[in-house]
Amino acid sequence: MSAPKRQKTSKDGVPYELIYWPGIPGRGEHVRLLLEEAGATYTDTAHQGPDPVLSMIGASNLGDEANPPYLAPPMLRHGDLVISQTPNILMYLAPRLGLAGDSSSEDEDAIYRLNALVLTALDGLSNEVHDCHHPIAVSLYYEDQKEESLRRTRDYVANRLPKYLGYFERVLKGKASGEGPWLYGGHLTYADLVLFHCVDGLKFMFPKAMKAMEKEHKGVFELYEAVKSRPKIQEYLASDRRQPYSQGIYRHYDELDITE
Ligand SMILES: N[C@@H](CCC(=O)N[C@@H](CS)C(=O)NCC(=O)O)C(=O)O
């Protein structure tokens, strides 16, 4: 039996809905930054408490005819499409929002290059960062794994953080980055927005270590400032649409704020 045919409906003018936890920027922030920079119309369940997320990831949710169920937020609803996994959502949004490179350059492969940069940033500057305060188990409290957290953080700050920031510094020096402070093709792209949030979170979590990184990674910090000073991003960061840092990926514990 062949698979049921799915009707393709136009999504022109259909608003985006971000489905994400309240109270932390979290991975949802990467999605928000694209929508904000592009001035897109969107709603964000962070302003409605945890219930919208809970109902999407709960055991009784089986998805619908077209969409399989979801394990974890963020999720993006756009018309009849509902997708999860941060880099997947970003890859869907970026070309639609004009954040996937110079559209006049006919660089059809740009999205794959950008996705590689994004996945790399999320690997080392987001996913691994979570392991600094949860090195043993996500289901345990930080307080139950403090000793291991310090060991893990020492290694992260000494080895992994400079490795990843050094990689992005190298990307910025490469020919493919083009003119200006951006990672790829001389234009602001969604990869720059992703790196911006990673650096912002890391500055909150490890202010001392990040200060010490500035000298050797000038390009990365210039990119950070360039994104931060974009008018729409500035307005967003000052608005109540921005969620505060607290118990998410980027957490500040004084005892983990080490320089080596
Ligand atoms: N690889 C997924 C990870 C999703 C994820 O871990 N989401 C967090 C919030 S940022 C969550 O609520 N996880 C619940 C869980 O893992 O049980 C992505 O990039 O979206």
TrEMBL record:
Give the superkingdom in one word.
Answer: Eukaryota
Q: Which residues does UniProt call coiled coil?
A: none
Matching Gene3D superfamilies, A to Z? 1.20.1050.10, Glutaredoxin (3.40.30.10)
The record, for Pfam families, names:
GST_C_3
Record domain GST C-terminal: where: 115-246
Pinpoint the GST N-terminal domain residues. Answer: 15-101
What are the transmembrane regions? Answer: none
Its name, as the record gives it, is Glutathione S-transferase
